[in-house]
Specification:
The protein is mainly beta. It has one domain: OB fold (Dihydrolipoamide Acetyltransferase, E2P). The chain has one helix at residues 33-39; strands at residues 3-13, 17-22, 28-31, 46-53, 61-68. A five-stranded mixed beta barrel has the order 1-2-3-5-4. Strand 4 (46-53) and strand 5 (61-68) form a beta hairpin.
Length: 70
């Protein structure tokens, strides 16, 4: 099931996606390359993210869509 969360980007590696943390529960979020490169995510960016449970145990969530919060 998908949900919406405000997240802060904690790391971003070119060609490898990005990682962030949810503001509501401090759980980790993985941003696939397609999402992170489309938004050119960098550390400390604040984004509103649509998340789904990740296939792996860590990180707990995976972003399927995001937009910057200005």
């Amino acid at each position: 099931m998908a949900g919406k969360a405000v997240c802060f980007i904690t790391s971003s590696l070119e060609g490898k996606g990005a990682y962030g943390i949810r503001a509501d529960n401090d759980e980790s979020v993985y941003y696939p390359v397609s999402v992170s490169e489309a938004l050119q995510l960098e550390e400390f960016d604040e984004v509103e993210t649509i998340v789904i449970k990740n296939d792996r145990a860590e990180p707990a969530w995976r972003a399927i869509k995001a937009r910057r919060i200005n």
